[in-house]
Amino acid sequence: MYYNFFNKKRGSHCKLWINDENFGRDFYTNDKSNPLLTIAWNKNKDQSIEIDGVFYHFKRNTVICLMVNQTFHFEDASEIIAWQFNRDFYCIESHDKEVSCVGFLFYGTAQAMFIEVESEIERKLDLLLKICQEEFLDVDDIQEDMLRMLFKRLIILVTRLAKKQYVSHELPDHKLNIIREYNLLVEKNYKTEHSVKFYAEILNKSPKTLSNIFKIYGDITPSSIIQQRILLEAKRLLLYTSKSSKEIAYELGFEDISYFSNFFKRLSGLAPSSFKHKNLVKSN
After folding, report:
1. Are residues 162 and 242 in the same domain?
2. Residue limits of the HTH araC/xylS-type domain (predicted)?
3. Between the chain's N and C termini, which has fewer beta carbons within 10 Å?
């Protein structure tokens, strides 16, 4: 089953899915016109989740945050609880001081972030879920404000938990904020700007300073953030559209198709055409 709220005048939209076997998302086909961020909670049993053609182990009592432009399906969606919302309902970028999730939970690295739910957080999520259900049914002039408050609370809970599990104590908030700003800038500019220098100048940092900050965060570099984001989009376009490798190369800022092909093969192990063929065979 699912609950749906839509304010036609404002365009604000949110959903709550509870153990619905039809839950999933196909961005490039059915869902492109409905840009919803997703927070999915696998409450009861281990299963798999497919995100943009890649399968991951989705442990029980684990949360994952999914982007608007991701295609995803669950092994058993009837075990999933999910909250979805669009920018008009709650803009996480303009409200980042409230929730601090941009460039971390959402618009972060290309790697999937699975967040284990601790017992105390599980209790809070269960309570929040119950109140959300009630508010979706309670139609009045303040319904949207009440739902927005609950979704904001959800985002804060998940962000706190993710920071506890993924961010080193050696990385202070002001340095994590630089990483988050960098990730968001990459998300907005990766199709045209491929050098760390471009982003470093906007942040008033040197490329070396950025590299040192990322070393504290984990085994990832500023340049790899850019490369992995480009690779992810290239894979999506190869998997879910009929665009040629040449069209994709130009869309992603490569003037030379051979350079794009070498870039793709170096990072993925396959040429773009081989990657597409392999996945077409797999889907058939």
Report:
1. no
2. 180-278
3. C
